[in-house]
Amino acid sequence: MPKGPQIVGIAGPSCSGKSELARCLVKQLSEKNPVLLPLDSYYHDLSPLDPVEREKRNFDVPEALDHDLCRQQLLTLANGGAIDKPVYDFAAHMRLPQPERISPGRLVIIEGLFALYWQEIRSLFHMSVFVTLHDHVCLSRRIERDTRDRGRSLESVVSQYTETVRPMNEQYILPTMKFADIAVSGEDPLDRSTALIMNHIGEIDNQQSKPGDGR
Asked: What would the pLDDT profile of 93-137 be if each residue is shown by its tens digit?
């Protein structure tokens, strides 16, 4: 594992609470100058396709994401370098022309559906977290988010959830829970979940600071 900032991966079903948990950790661990890296930023750019074709794409499979670029940029951050993180437009299914410049702090948090899916990315993590949540709650939250923030209709959100989100979650996401160091519920109070994760991070800090530690 490269020396440098600690890297924490947070995975779980769609709308389970991964992003909210990650943002809360960023606030609680501000002394580490944390960097938040949403895996959603690495969806492939579909601008060459007709808008109708973009809508037909399955965004809930691993192939929908550019995990090679994600791993490359994680390695850069892990080794102290800055990256130009893609900025994704979910309404248009394309990357915006101007990326976001990000410099590494002492902590990098990457969160997303497939954060624990690829072994070559998991191998960079100092800690892995999986957020669990009942399916009906995930759907309710997704309807609220996508109609409010991503310009989607209720019908399209429900259709996508039924046809791809739920079955792909069962096929690809839920099995990655076995790779997590800690599992938390998306319905638990955030302060409880963040405290559990921060305690684990503190244990890692203590191990790294011991004389003779090989990391």
From this structure: 899 999 999 998 999 999 999 999 999 999 999 999 999 999 999
Asked whether residue 36 is domain-assigned, the answer is yes
The reply to whether 34 falls in a domain is yes
Structural domain boundaries, residue 12: 6-209
CATH of the domain at 127: 3.40.50.300
For the chain, what is the domain count? 1
> Is the pLDDT assigned to residue 83 strictly greater than 50?
yes
The model's pTM: 0.90
Categorize the per-residue pLDDT at 215 as very low, low, confident or very high, splitting at 50, 70 and 90: very low
Percent of the chain with pLDDT over 90: 80
How many other CB atoms sit within 10 Å of the CB of residue 94? 18
Domain assignment present for residue 1? The answer is no
| Residue 166 and residue 135 in contact, taking contact as beta carbons nearer than 8 Å | yes
Q: In whole angstroms, give the CA distance from residue 196 to residue 191.
A: 9
Query: Is 215 a member of any domain?
Result: no
Q: State residue 15's pLDDT score.
A: 94
